[in-house]
From TrEMBL:
Residue span, Peptidase S11 D-alanyl-D-alanine carboxypeptidase A N-terminal domain: 34-261
Signal sequence range: 1-27
UniProt family annotation: Belongs to the peptidase S11 family.
Pfam family, one: Peptidase_S11
Source organism, top-level taxon: Bacteria
Organism listed in the record: Paenibacillus motobuensis
Keywords for the protein's UniProt record, in alphabetical order: Carboxypeptidase, Cell shape, Cell wall biogenesis/degradation, Hydrolase, Peptidoglycan synthesis, Protease, Signal
GO-annotated molecular function: carboxypeptidase activity
Listed name of the protein: D-alanyl-D-alanine carboxypeptidase DacB
Length: 389
């Protein structure tokens, strides 16, 4: 009888604990930080990224490897800008002339500056321009594709592979929404790329007719979304409607990517609004800010955050012994959100900060895409030695 009472007591105690468990789990769930409610999208895959910090603010099937149509030309343009010379004349060869798909109707043997051809590439999505650019910059289309894939590897784009410079459907030619967001955010730090993709109308000399070429940008976002400043449309039968758009408000630039989205213009508007409304770009550290006695921040650090997230930012100063070979560098400041690393910046002995060119102040705040100190130092030397190039 006594044993039966004990069993009954244990059974009642266990039942009580089980009843309390959902309440405890619910309380723990309520204590977790909540992200603002995203508007969603109609795409097969989508991503929203802050350009300055590189933070992905929203994604839906973001790593899915998919055909991307003419969004390919974002990579084509940045590779051509970085490896070519904009003033060079590009000659249209047989492979480029009459290339299938969208075209700017270049003539066989026609010559046009690389700069103007890039406008034709990005505003009108000229496949003939893409092929001509690839052959000029890479020596051949195959050589240029190799440069494209090398760039993808350098940027850490693990879900991207390119087979051509124009984006016509091809086996093993794909990317993902997050990879395209990262690529575009990177490209937007290049002033030439940035100028091209924000242009609504471009005129260029036409050697074949008495009138100039006139190219009107296919990207409707430039005309109906306040602050829109890029970047590329795309379509093939396999990839369907693809779009990358960007906009800048209050000093913050965001990029949205959608792949296979039948309502892309509206989805981009909603996702851009969501990013600007909930994740403003906040300055965490200022360049030259004193971190401790005699030690200052080498570069500024900004990050897209909700106001509540700002309260959960942590910092850890990691110092090294002074060494003349380090050019005044004393270590790094590690920056965390909810104890997870989101970036790090070099710190220097006061008065020793190198003159880093503006475009390298903060290319990315976290991940393999952010240049390390040595890379930044190389950029300093290059800017000083080759500024007239």
């Amino acid at each position: 009888m006594r044993m039966t009472s004990k069993i009954r007591f244990i059974s009642l105690l266990t039942s009580g604990l089980l009843l309390l468990y959902p309440l405890a789990a619910q309380a723990e769930e309520q204590d977790k930080p909540k992200s603002p409610q995203a508007p969603g999208d109609h795409a097969q895959a989508a991503a929203l990224i802050d350009v300055t910090s590189g933070r992905v603010l929203y994604e839906h099937h973001g790593d899915e490897e998919l055909p991307i149509a003419s969004l390919t030309k974002i990579m084509t343009a940045i590779v051509a800008i970085e490896h070519g010379r904009l003033s060079d004349n590009v000659k249209v060869g047989k492979s480029a002339y009459g290339k299938e798909g969208s075209s700017i109707y270049l003539h066989l043997g026609e010559e046009m500056t690389l700069e103007n051809m890039l406008f034709g590439l990005m505003l009108r999505s000229g496949n003939d321009a893409a092929t001509a650019i690839a052959e000029h910059v890479g020596g051949s289309e195959e050589g240029f594709v190799r440069l494209m894939n090398e760039k993808a590897s350098l940027l850490g784009l693990k879900h991207s592979q390119f087979q051509n410079p124009h984006g016509l459907d091809a086996k093993n030619h794909y990317s993902s929404a997050i990879d395209l967001a990262k690529l575009t955010a990177y490209a937007m730090h290049n002033p030439d790329f940035k100028e091209i993709v924000k242009t609504e109308v471009k005129q260029a000399p036409n050697p074949n007719d008495p009138w100039d070429y006139k190219w009107i940008n296919k990207n409707k976002m430039l005309r109906f979304y306040e602050g829109a400043d890029g970047v590329k449309t795309g379509f093939t039968k396999k990839a369907r409607r693809c779009l990358v758009s960007s906009a800048t408000r209050n000093g913050q630039q965001l990029v949205v990517v959608t792949i296979n989205d039948g309502d892309d213009w509206n989805d981009h508007r909603k996702l851009l609004d969501y990013g600007f409304d909930h994740f403003p770009l906040m300055e965490i550290i200022k360049r030259g800010q004193t971190l401790q006695s005699g030690v200052v921040a080498g570069i500024g650090f900004k990050y897209a955050l909700t106001p509540k997230e700002l309260e959960r930012i942590g910092k850890k100063l990691v110092l090294q012994e002074e060494n003349e070979l380090h050019f005044g560098k004393r270590g790094e400041l590690h920056i965390m959100l909810d104890q997870k690393p989101i970036g790090k910046i070099p710190v220097y002995k006061r008065g020793s900060i190198p003159p880093i060119p503006k475009q390298y102040q903060q290319v990315y705040s976290s991940g393999s895409m952010r240049p390390d100190w040595f890379t930044s130092f190389q950029h300093v030397l290059r800017s000083l030695l080759f500024s007239g190039d």
